[in-house]
């Protein structure tokens, strides 16, 4: 009987069984950032401990960095204290810090893959729930709390119970104008925001086989929004091609050995799964959220649900969502007026996201009254975009082009909604207050749909706004 | 380094209604701009408890009848979203010592257990009964029997679920795993040595 990638990685990293029955699991790579690490370093000092594997610990700064200010001190003294604290901790404990002056700073889940630190068959932990992003490489990557950040700093391990594995297979061909973001929003809509509790998600099938690494990252990123702590795609030639030549990847003979190991870590064809769920690619439409969790999503041509039309178990949450979103039940989502358009985040702040938007937006312009910002996920993404002139195309179309960071995905830096503004957002969470205003409203969608909303001022079907996304009309 | 054995928790309870209560709602991100967890308790559920312009909203935690409650009764998928430990820290520092809900998000459950704050799960029907009892008598004392996975209140006993590894960790004083993890030092080196990407 074969094994899944999850089982293989778990077995090779299991240190021992703990008294309570959990496994002490070795964490090969620890990624840290400024928000969830300071308390962990303080605990380390209190216990008189060192960082166990400083050479396997990498830091960056992302959540609190202002995207409209390239210099320090930051205008916000609290944010300034946090970057200084991280810098101090990294120096004191010998941790590599991709600080802004290195030109490699960015959102932690963009930096790891970009540097080639994220590799197949390894384990990663990071004090951020979107750590599942790294699973795109066949990595088992856990989002953890601060006490666990302390555990990993001090011991390079953490205590965990084994997860079940659900294979999510998407076969067939995506329709033109349907993107990776639509795939994951569709999966979460169908399986629920807590459908993945206790599971690792293995994404597979023809759609994932064809996806680029950046598309795989977009899907794995949002695993946690479906309740799954871990999501991954089996490594293949696409993975190896992406990694080859990256700074932290092996070279020469060591590269060939690594590729052989990486191939072998993929799930075996006869591996048993706790569950298998199948979707048909052709059933997936451009998808947008209408409510206050990522599972409250509909296809662009559907209407906003009503309390009456919802299942009994959902009525309360649908009512709460409708009240917050101030949307009309039964009305089409298409045509909903927006105030802000946000392109960026660890879900959709990579080069391909900006390439795709720039390809279609030329000749269009953000409508007056809509604030549109484009935020590269890392300094390297920013540089790549500039080399291709994408920043210019986006600026000419009316987007503000910003410095790298988490920006408007969460309310920890100056990029925030005001009042009950409605934001078309390429980020990952539409929780009440998530984007910085208690009454602010978020509609999650793909970058191209954000661009379509920005240039029309309303939630739109990007296939209609940009006929170029639809090859049939070429 | 034996910690306190958490076998049973007694106290009054308060109901925080709704499913899918996310950690952004439990502790809004702006309060995470800090380098310690001290003082987080006062910002618990801040945006659902207070108006933007100041002043209290109608919220169970603002209801004087439930002041001093140490058990939080919630809905399903409690603590979903961000992995921020700031959320259970805020709940603990506000004064809660245990939760009873229909279910938890994975990371929140682990973060809470590590603080020695049991996350018990009860059936929807039993939770409805408990909520009704607490709302009609806020002074009602609830006993959470962690050891035997039961909830007792007003002469009734309700079965509760708690993952065995968490139950073991709580009742034997191993809920903070750092001491156990540090003991495995030699095995950690041996495991790392077997992995080419770490041995190199």
Structure description:
- The complex is a heterodimer of chains A (474) and B (200).
- By secondary structure, chain A is an alpha/beta fold.
- Chain A folds into two domains: 5-275, 2-Layer Sandwich (Aconitase, domain 3); 287-473, Aconitase, domain 3, CATH 3.30.499.
- Chain A is 33% helix and 17% strand.
- Chain A contains 17 helices and 19 strands.
- Chain A has a five-stranded parallel β-sheet with strand order 5-4-3-6-7, sandwiched between helices. Chain A has a five-stranded parallel β-sheet with strand order 17-16-15-18-19. In chain A, strands 11-10-9-12 form a four-stranded parallel β-sheet.
- In chain A, helix 2 (38-47) crosses helix 5 (146-155).
- The mean pLDDT of chain A is 97.
- In chain B, the strands form two sheets. A four-stranded antiparallel β-sheet of chain B has the order 1-6-7-8, covered by helices on one side.
- Chain B is globular.
- By secondary structure, chain B is of the alpha/beta class.
- Chain B is built from nine helices and eight strands.
- Chain B has one domain (8-199): Aconitase, domain 4 (Alpha-Beta Barrel).
- Helices cover 34% and strands 14% of the residues of chain B.
- The two termini of chain B are 34 Å apart.
- Chains A and B meet through strand 1, helix 2, helix 3, helix 5 and strand 8 of A and helix 3, helix 4, helix 6, helix 7 and helix 8 of B.
Secondary structure: elements and pairs:
The complex is a heterodimer of chains A (474) and B (200).
Chain A: H1 5-13, E1 14-17, E2 23-26, E3 29-32, H2 38-47, E4 57-60, H3 77-93, E5 96-98, H4 108-115, E6 123-126, E7 140-143, H5 146-155, E8 157-160, E9 164-171, H6 180-191, E10 199-204, H7 206-210, H8 213-221, E11 230-233, H9 237-243, H10 252-265, E12 275-280, E13 287-289, E14 297-299, H11 315-325, E15 340-343, H12 345-348, H13 351-361, E16 371-374, H14 379-388, H15 390-396, E17 400-401, E18 422-425, E19 441-444, H16 447-456, H17 462-465
Parallel strand pairs in A: 3-4, 3-6, 4-5, 6-7, 9-10, 9-12, 10-11, 15-16, 15-18, 16-17, 18-19
Antiparallel strand pairs in A: 1-2, 2-8, 13-14
Helix pairs in contact in A: 2-5, 6-8, 13-16
Chain B: E1 8-11, E2 13-15, H1 23-26, H2 46-49, E3 71-73, H3 86-94, E4 98-101, H4 106-114, E5 119-121, H5 124-136, E6 142-145, E7 150-153, E8 156-159, H6 164-171, H7 178-183, H8 185-194, H9 196-199
Parallel strand pairs in B: 2-3, 3-4, 4-5
Antiparallel strand pairs in B: 1-6, 6-7, 7-8
């Amino acid at each position: 009987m074969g094994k899944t990638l999850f089982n293989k990685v778990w077995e090779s990293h299991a240190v021992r069984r703990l008294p309570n029955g959990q496994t002490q699991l070795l964490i090969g790579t620890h990624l840290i950032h400024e928000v969830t690490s300071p308390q962990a370093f303080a605990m380390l000092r209190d216990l008189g401990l060192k960082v166990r594997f400083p050479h396997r610990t990498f830091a960056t700064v992302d959540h609190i960095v202002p995207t409209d200010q390239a210099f320090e001190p930051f205008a916000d003294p609290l944010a300034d204290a946090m970057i200084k604290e991280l810098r101090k901790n990294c120096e004191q404990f010998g941790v590599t810090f991709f600080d802004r002056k290195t030109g490699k700073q960015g959102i932690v889940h963009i930096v790891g893959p970009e540097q080639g630190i994220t590799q197949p068959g390894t384990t990663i932990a990071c004090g951020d729930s979107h750590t599942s992003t790294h699973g795109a490489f066949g990595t088992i990557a856990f989002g953890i709390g601060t006490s666990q950040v302390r555990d990993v700093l001090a011991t390079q391990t953490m205590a965990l119970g084994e997860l079940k594995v659900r294979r999510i297979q998407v076969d067939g061909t995506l329709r033109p104008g349907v993107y990776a973001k639509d795939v994951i929003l569709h999966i979460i809509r169908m399986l629920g925001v807590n459908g993945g509790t206790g599971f690792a998600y293995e994404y597979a099938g023809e759609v994932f086989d064809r996806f680029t690494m950046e598309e795989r990252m977009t899907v794995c990123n949002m695993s946690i929004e479906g309740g799954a702590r871990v999501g991954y795609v089996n490594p293949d030639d696409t993975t190896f091609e992406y990694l080859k030549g990256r700074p932290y990847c092996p070279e020469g003979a060591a590269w060939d050995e690594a590729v052989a190991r990486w191939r072998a870590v993929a799930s075996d064809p006869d591996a048993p799964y706790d569950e298998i769920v199948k979707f048909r690619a052709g059933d997936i439409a451009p998808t947008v959220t209408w409510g206050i969790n990522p599972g409250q999503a509909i296809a662009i041509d559907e209407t906003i649900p009503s309390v009456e039309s919802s299942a009994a178990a959902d009525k309360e949450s649908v009512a709460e969502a409708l009240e917050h979103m101030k949307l009309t039940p039964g009305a089409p989502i298409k045509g909903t007026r927006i105030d802000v358009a946000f392109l960026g985040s660890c879900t959709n702040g990579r080069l391909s996201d900006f390439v795709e938007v720039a390809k279609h937006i030329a000749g269009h312009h953000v409508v007056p009254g809509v604030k549109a910002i484009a935020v590269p996920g890392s300094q390297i993404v920013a540089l790549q975009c500039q080399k291709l002139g994408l920043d210019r195309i986006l600026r000419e179309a009316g987007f503000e082009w910003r410095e790298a960071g988490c920006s408007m995905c969460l309310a920890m830096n100056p990029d925030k909604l005001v009042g009950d503004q409605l934001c078309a957002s390429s980020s990952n969470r539409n929780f009440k207050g998530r984007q910085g205003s208690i009454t602010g409203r978020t509609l999650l969608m793909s970058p191209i749909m954000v661009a379509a909303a920005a240039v029309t001022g309303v939630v739109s079907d990007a296939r209609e706004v940009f006929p170029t996304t639809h090859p049939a009309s070429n | 380094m034996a910690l306190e054995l958490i076998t049973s928790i007694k106290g009054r309870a308060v109901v925080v209604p709704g499913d899918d209560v996310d950690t952004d709602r439990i502790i809004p991100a702006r309060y995470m701009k800090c380098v310690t967890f001290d003082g987080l308790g006062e910002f618990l559920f801040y945006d659902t408890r207070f108006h933007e312009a100041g002043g209290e909203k109608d919220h169970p935690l603002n209801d004087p009848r439930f002041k001093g409650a140490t058990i939080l009764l919630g809905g399903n998928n409690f603590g979903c979203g961000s992995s921020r430990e700031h959320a259970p820290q805020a709940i603990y520092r506000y004064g809660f010592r245990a939760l009873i809900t229909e279910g938890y998000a994975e990371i929140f459950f682990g973060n809470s257990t590590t603080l020695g704050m049991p996350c018990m799960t009860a059936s929807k029907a039993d939770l409805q009964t408990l909520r009704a009892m607490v709302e009609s008598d806020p002074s009602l004392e609830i006993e959470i029997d962690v050891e035997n996975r039961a909830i007792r209140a007003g002469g009734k006993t309700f079965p509760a679920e708690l993952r065995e590894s968490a139950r073991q960790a709580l009742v034997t004083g191993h809920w903070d795993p750092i001491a156990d993890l540090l003991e495995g030092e030699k095995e950690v080196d041996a495991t790392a040595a077997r992995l080419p990407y770490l041995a190199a």
